[in-house]
Amino acid sequence: MTETEDESVNSAEQNAPVGGYGSPNGSMRGFLSEVQADLAQGMLSPRVLNDPELHQAELERIFATCWVFVGHVSEIPSPGDYVLRYVGEDQFILVRDEQGEIQLLLNSCMHRGTMVCRAEKGNTSHFRCPYHGWIYKNSGDWNGAPHRGKAYRKLDAASWGLRRAPHVDSYQGLIFACLDPDAISLREYLGDMCWYLDVLFGLNEQGMSVAGDPHRWVVPANWKSGADNFVGDAYHVQSLHQSLGEIGLVPGIEKGAGAHFHISLKGGHGLIANSGILPEPFGVMGYPPEVASTFDLDRFEADQRAFLEGRFGVTGFTIFPNLSFFRSVTSTEVGQPPMNFTLLRQWQPRGPAKFDLWNWSLVWNSAPKEYNQAAYNAGINAFGPSGVFEQDDTVAWSGGPSTGRSVFARQSMKFNYQMGLEGMSDYALASDWMGPGDASTTYYGDMNQRRWWHRWSEQLQSS
Ligand code: FES
Ligand SMILES: [Fe+2]
Questions:
Q1: Which domains does the chain have, with CATH numbers?
Q2: 382-387 — which CB contacts under 8 Å span 24+ positions?
Q3: Which of 146, 180, 245, 385 could staple 253 via S-S, CB 3.0–4.6 A?
């Protein structure tokens, strides 16, 4: 190498990513095309983690058109039961009406927009607006107003009910809603994820229930950092969470990370799966005999049964856009046996630089009470406002918004998503995977994340 060439190593041109910097502040359509070109080369602009224009587009083209998780059936078991929930940044009432149907009602009075329900949860036959007293049934239908005979003699009651999500459906106890009247069905939206939801939540007829209310707190990061992490980032565990191994809460945490691999599904959904990370006596999906014996594997097809009996498990997943799952084992105290717990996690946007993190603990209805209590304790010890894993992750993600709005960062850098690309690692697709989707041979790859971001960019370009 000549001296001249050597000097060029430090030039801006030499440091530029292969795809170039593109237009970090350019029009959104042009930017999204660049995102797709960048992803093909394993790169992503930091702009995605803090941009008001992208954020507004996400509310309109992702949260108002995709199927979004709003709760678990066990949260509203009886007619009149309700909880407050969000789709994007809009607040809704998730309620079981008098007919037993689940409704998702916009929490805005049709008269002047006042919230008709201010309690986080409860049971009621009607919602009465505090402002002028309009009344709605728990189905959302308009049911009257003070002095109706004098004030609204000709009002068409059928037109003035609370706005209702056009589609609400559930699968394996998970309730989703879609605000797009022309949406595909939930089954079609979930696609092959149904196969995995069966083996995660359908291990017996009794199924799972939420344990207590979901924990909620504010994280100073972009909501997509959570979705990105849980869709495929097993690589961070050995680094960010290393201290949990060192203090004995998760013995062999490095080994655990190495037992993981990815499954990528159509639609941007993806899973972090594992293979036999626990020694005997932990059996099906990492459960001890007193719990595993309550499972009924006869209800599964041969390929699902092979998954369950093959000591495979799923550590995490993300269903596009913002629902994630975590099932793993930790000890609540050093020296105590590891306990398997199940969490649902949702990344709720609050502007481009902040999100609310919702965390539900789920327990098996068939399991001994003591086990469920211990599993709940293990779950909140690991994740939640004071969780030992959580505090690691959320601090790491909080760097996203400052990098995302940085003029210099937008001009000079792109994030690296090249792990697993040709020649980077031994990452490959398994040829004999028993289930649906593309399964990888190792976890040294960003395939799931690249595909999640690709779906995100496609969705933002949809009309
Ligand atoms: S705003 Fe609700 S009754 Fe007037
Ligand atoms: Fe983590």
A1: 71-174 (2.102.10.10), 188-461 (3.90.380.10)
A2: 382/328, 382/330, 382/341, 383/326, 383/343, 383/345, 383/359, 384/215, 384/359, 385/215, 385/217
A3: 245
